[in-house]
Amino acid sequence: MSIQTVFDKFATDYDGSRKKLIPCFDDFYRTAIETIPFDDEKAIEVLDLGAGTGLMAGLVATRYNRATITLVDIAGKMLDEAKKRLSHHPNTFEFITTDYSNNDAITDTYDVIISSLSIHHLTDRQKQNLFTTIFRHLREGGIFINADQVLGETEGIENVYRQKWLDQVRENGVTESELGAALERMQEDRMSPLSRHIGWLKDSGFSEVNCWYKNYSFTVLSGSRLPRCSIV
């Protein structure tokens, strides 16, 4: 089953169990938004890759009510849900259904490029290519923020990550139906260790690469495109 088919299938029910399935939900998303370095009144242009039902875009719009936000996702039904979620915000939104891992999917430049719980569906090679593409499409002074899941650095660490997640979501009251749907979606996961993400970002040209938050597999990473130093 393709990623598009999987997420179109679960689009209408996706948000209902999200807080149960992300044990660190509040800290995870709050850190991602707080990592954006611009003043709240700035009219920033934002690209949200793998935007899904618009959760991250909505958080950005709440803080930056002058932001223009472009949402990209491979699953059109997920973006249909995003349109409903974002309809009350005063921001300008654009919704694009496409596979952002294609080299020509990103065409404009942005102040902020964000992604949440999406890039881990790509292969290692696709991740590296995407990070290079993102760097090229960031304006000077811009930032890329990736709130995502990573693989444990060893098999033993990954086993702990997975068991802790199962324990936590069951403590949160996830139903067997919700867990089964999550596990079905997770069959499309292609997670990579944190150390590789950091290395790929640096190799792509990013500066100030940092992991701002980590809770087992859930991480918030960023990299910046610093302004060029002028020669006097």
Brief summary:
It is built from nine helices and seven strands. It is of the alpha/beta class and 232 residues long.
Can you tell me the overall shape?
globular
| Low-pLDDT stretches | none
What is the structural class? alpha/beta
Give me the side-by-side strand order of the main sheet: 3-2-1-4-5-7-6
Distance separating the two termini = 57 Å
Mean pLDDT across the residues is 92
Element-level helix/strand string: HHHEHEHEEHEHHHEE
What share of residues are in beta strands? 15-25%
Kindly state the percentage of residues in helix: 25-40%
Using DSSP, what is the number of strands?
7
Q: What's the helix count? A: 9
Structure in words:
The chain contains nine helices and seven strands. It is α/β, with parallel strands linked by helices. Strands 3-2-1-4-5-7-6 form a seven-stranded mixed sheet, with helices on both faces. Helix 6 packs parallel to helix 9. The relative contact order is 0.17.
